[in-house]
Design goal:
By secondary structure, the chain is of the alpha/beta class. Helices cover 38% and strands 24% of the residues.
């Protein structure tokens, strides 16, 4: 009963009031005619009973009208960002090593993941959507903030949990638990899943990643990787927050043509912004619709509202001093020493900072929504 009542509009409430007022007037007139007739016939006792009945019905009508007004009021004050529908989906994917992913000839290890789809409130037949890929810390408060802002803007969200199904809680201190490229397979699988959803506009599905997850969201624009792991559906755009751009892959500037938007804090000492500047310039020279928005005084995870302005993560593994390249298919090496990629490489640093910046977050939210809408 409550859900039906909440669907009554203000116009309908006024119509109900007019209808009740008309009935009340007819009842009022007919009842008093009956009272007068009873007085004339000296049936005082019947008159008293009828008067009591009249007042009782008046009370019921008043309560009904107050209830309708209350329901209409509630319908106008739905909290911002509340979804119209929530669905949890299983997501079959594959875990691959770096070499297995890049060679594209291995079956890998099958894994069952999960994703949460949230549809905005609204009567639209289909909604644009964003697939959200978390970073090394897993799904946290910042992700929930993004979901609410996007849903409020009329954009559906699909959050991929790339960790839980693999028995991972965090890779902050040990990145060897899961290759960032393997998370790209998860993103492609999520794309195929929600592209078939009846309430999702398959031509307007974007992918957005954060740090480790941004490797999946940005480099999934590569034609090479899409041919290997993508399906019929294609991402409408690629968004990366504090993206690690310091590992370069063969053919990573031969792209699908979908626009790209990168956002990065200048003071980020976890993921260095400098490699992204060079990568974006290369793409621009090739005519790619790509931008890199830089924020001063903004550290890694600057969009995390639960994070202090600056917090040290003393055991975080960081490649901020490294530059790696794929020198031949499936082989990643240090660009300077030519040593095969490893987290024991001397360039690997331990310890970094994260920190919330409200203004940088506000500008990023505004830019992302404008990009999608």
């Amino acid at each position: 009963m409550r859900s039906r009542a909440l669907q009554i509009t203000v116009g309908q409430t006024r119509s109900i009031r007019l209808s009740h007022n008309l009935k009340l007037r007819c009842f009022y007139e007919s009842t008093f005619d009956e009272i007068a007739l009873q007085i004339i016939n000296n049936k005082i006792s019947e008159t008293i009973k009828m008067t009591k009945r009249f007042h009782t019905i008046l009370g019921h009508l008043a309560i009904a009208l107050i209830g309708l007004t209350s329901f209409a009021s509630q319908a106008q004050t739905i909290p911002a960002g509340i979804p119209g529908r929530i669905e949890v989906h299983s997501l079959a994917s594959t875990t691959l090593t770096t070499a297995e992913f890049l060679l594209g000839n291995a079956q890998g290890k099958p894994v069952m993941l999960a994703g949460e789809l949230r549809l905005p409130v609204g009567a639209a037949a289909k909604f644009p959507a964003v697939i959200l890929v978390h970073g090394s810390g897993g799904i946290g408060g910042a992700m929930d903030m993004w979901i609410h802002h996007l849903n409020q803007a009329g954009i559906a969200t699909f959050v991929v949990d790339t960790f839980s199904g693999r028995g991972i809680v965090s890779t902050v201190q040990d990145q060897t638990q899961l290759d960032s490229l393997s998370m790209m397979v998860d993103a492609y699988k999520a794309l195929e899943l929600i592209a078939a959803h009846p309430r999702i506009d398959a031509k307007h599905i974007y992918v957005m990643g954060f740090s480790k997850g941004a490797v999946a969201s940005i480099f999934s624009a590569s034609n090479r990787f899409k041919k290997m792991y993508g399906g019929q559906a294609q991402f409408a755009g690629h968004i990366g927050l504090y993206t690690p751009c310091n590992i370069r892959y063969i053919g990573d500037t031969d792209l699908t043509g979908a626009p790209m938007r990168l956002f990065h804090g200048i003071t980020d000492d976890y993921v260095n912004i400098i490699p992204c500047r060079g990568f974006v310039e290369e793409l621009k020279k090739k005519g790619v619709d790509v931008t890199l928005t830089e924020f001063p005084n903004s550290d890694h995870s600057y969009d995390g509202p639960l994070t202090p302005n600056r917090l040290e993560i003393p055991k975080a593994q960081s490649t901020r001093q490294c530059k790696f390249i794929e020198d031949k298919p499936g082989n990643i090496v240090n660009a300077e020493s030519k040593a095969v990629f490893s987290y024991t490489d001397p360039c690997i640093a331990v310890g970094a900072h994260v920190g919330y910046n409200a203004e940088s977050t506000r500008q990023t939210i505004q830019a992302v929504i404008s990009f999608i809408k």
